[in-house]
Amino acid sequence: MTRTARCVAALTTTVALLVTAAACADGTTPAADGAGAVDENAPVTITIGDRPTPDKPNDIAAFDRNVKKFMDAHPNITVKSTETKWDAQTFQAQVAGGSLPTVMNISFTEPANMIPNKQLPDITDELKLVDLTKDLNPNVLKIVQDDAGRIYGVPIDVFSVGLAYNRALFKQAGLDPEKPPTTWDEVREYARQITEKTGKAGYAQLTKDNTGGWMLTTMTYSMGGTVQSEDGKKSTFNDAPTKKALQLLKDMRWSDNTMGSNFLYNQEEIRQDFAAGKIGMVLQAPDAYDMAVKNFGMKPADYGHAALPQDGGPHGTLTGGSIKMINPKASKNEIVAALKWIKSQEFDKYTDEQLAVQNAKDTIADKGFVGRPGITPLSQETYDRYNKWREPYNNVPVQQFAGYLESTKSLKLLPEPSNKAQEVYAMLDPVVQKVLTDKNADVDKLLTDAASKIDARLGR
Amino acid sequence: MALSIRTAARPRRSPVSWFRSGGLSSVLFALPLVLVFLYFSWGPIVRGLVLSFQKNNLVTAPEWVGTANFSYVLTDPQLPQAAANTLYFALLALVFGFPVPLFLAVFISELRTTGWLYNVISYLPAVVPPVAAILLWKFFYDPSGTGVFNAILGWVGLGPYAWLNSPSLAMPAIVLEATWAGAGATSIIYLAALTGVRTELYEAAELDGAGIWRRVWHVTLPQIRGIILIMMLLQLIGTFQVFTEPFLFTGGGPDNATTTILLLIYRYAFINGDFGAATALSVLLAGVLCVLSVVYHFLTRRWSTT
Question: Would you indicate the residue range of the signal peptide (chain A) (predicted)?
């Protein structure tokens, strides 16, 4: 899930809290056959979360169609649905309260806490039974595995942060749009050239609504650092990599003057300015393409997406995404039924050419984008084949994502902080803002202060 | 004694006659309204009070924590700055924002024929939804040299200014927009008050040779003193609760320069999911505003018209 989507989800869920609580009261109950053998034909009822909200009638119609189709194909399985959605603010309480549906989407930030807490069921054997394991991308699968390699969820959607750049500005600045920067030194160099030749911001940084901390974390990762200890109890950003990241921003802002004049950007605002050609380079996940082109009218030919620049690395890139989790109280039969549902909804399209093509056609009919690169939750082979089937329908200039595509196969995927990630990000926002708006900002002091504040929060 | 005679002259109504004269139906008639009022108007306030003493995420069973939430928010290192920012906003709004609508209203009321036109023009900003207005002003405040304000100031050789991107300029910029947005609505109230000023006072003043400024100073302002005092209190209470502008303009930045108390409350509740801390700080703010109102009342009682 992107930052934007997450913020929206956070707000809507808070408002709809009471409704949700009522709607998911009929969630999964522990069944008697918990430890018994799996009977694939026994009648079983599962509840599916993430049902589209009533403001999206087309999505509801499609959702209901899928449910009916699935139930026709599996007469012993009854599918119910609720609008329950993952939201960082309320999710842990829902887990504790036992009010979760059998299946729902959650963020990549959750399993790290949930697996040791036994809040997710071990589904390794059932995955084999429904023939899903062999397809899953081993790199991504690590997010839902314990040390012994047992699996506790199904990753379905993955993104990692890269560098979005404006190809038209590159050309105007005399830079080769086919050769985006790969190190932070190059980013600085390129930014200088863009500002010098075009007068636009060579590079811009997200700073507002928690995205400042989010992107500082990304930069820290790319410089070989971390922001939180492994157990999530202490902050770790008060060391060389984060300092280096902030110093780089400070230099680009105050010495080079290549970061433009706006230092209060959230996701929409920065995408808007990027689409309008006011920014040369900006850290983004590739879904930035959708908003830049669809909402803000950027020319697809001008959009380029490169790998996250590294420093003394490669160290890796910040990654996030969605997992299908299964209720820890689900019986074996329910787990199998749930996995069958996940497979039919999320994975069959990867192995069924007809379905893949139909899916692409539907997306185009809905004015969506086919072919925008992402990270595969599946084996690379399966994903490549799926993309080949859909290639004739591609309406996204895939070759302009070449640098990013390459990085999805080579760069290490580093997860977001496991404990109170959003709060950590919120506390880091002003640090980034201070560096960009105060020439005399003391990076060391800023980080020491932020660390003491965050450590107090992590302990609360 | 007159009082006892009156009491005796008015016989006590028995429950029967009370019932016969429709007493029950009037109670039944009022009851739903009273209940709805209590539940929806006072329910949230009581619930907020209760929440402020709990560790509560609104889903699992709440846990009583005594005054822990209060001590937590009072020792939060972000609180002093948020409080200072809020006071700074209130002060700026009082010094620069408060006289504007008053001036507008007096100005409009002095116009005999085209007053309605100025009335419409001054009230129009109040019709623009705040979110749209703020987006528009963001456009004005574009920090680059080509931004609307910077371009205009550039003609006379000033700027470019960083506006919202500058820790020192951000708050005044927000106050400027808030004044623009609020002036129309407030001046309408003053205008209404001005129609109550007796015209013979003006005539008398004119006969005595008073010019327009003396008339305003000696007749208009003293006559609407009561309204001015009330509006000042309302503005103080309002500015202490400023949220929309900093939230949409700057998100509290840069470097927390525009983080207000309400923004802090919002962060506690919706980013940290800490509803206990959020309500504790809200209760504290409400308490401060109550005290402020009482003090204000006693301080200004002497000048009030009533």
Answer: 1-25
CATH (one of 1.10.510.10, 3.40.190.10, 1.10.1060.10, 3.40.50.300) for A44-152+322-350: 3.40.190.10
How close A97 gets to chain B, by Cα (Å)?
Answer: 6
**Interface contact A262-B143, CB threshold 8 A:** yes
Nearest to A433 among B60, B72, B253 (CB): B253
A430:B253 CB<8 A:
yes
Separation in Å, CA of A383 to nearest CA in chain B: 36
ipTM exceeds 0.85: no
Per residue of chain A (460 residues), give pLDDT as tens.
444 444 444 444 444 433 333 333 333 334 444 445 788 888 999 999 988 878 767 778 878 888 998 999 999 999 999 988 887 556 766 776 667 899 999 888 778 767 877 788 999 999 988 888 777 888 788 888 888 889 999 998 888 999 999 999 999 999 999 999 999 999 999 999 999 999 999 999 999 988 999 999 999 999 999 999 988 889 999 999 999 999 999 999 999 999 999 999 988 899 999 999 999 999 999 989 988 998 899 999 999 999 999 998 799 999 888 899 999 888 999 999 999 999 988 888 888 899 899 888 877 877 778 998 888 888 888 888 999 999 999 999 999 999 999 898 888 888 888 778 878 998 999 999 999 999 999 999 999 999 998 998 887 6
Q: Which of B51, B149, B165 to mutate to test the interface with A (most CBs of A within 10 A)?
A: B165
In sequence order, what are the beta bridge partners of A136?
A: A378
- Domain borders along chain A are 44-152+322-350, 162-316+372-380+391-459
Domain A162-316+372-380+391-459 has CATH 3.40.190.10: yes
* Domain around B295: 68-305
Q: Nearest 5°: CA angle at B106, between B196 and B118?
A: 110
Minimum distance, in Å, between the CA of residue A264 and any CA atom of chain B: 6
Return the half-sphere exposure (C-beta side, CA atoms, 13 A cut-off) of residue B168: 2
CA distances from B131 to A451, B138, B160 (A): 34, 11, 25
Task: Write out chain A residues lying below 8 Å of B245, CB-based.
Answer: none
- CATH number, domain of B230, equals 1.10.3720.10
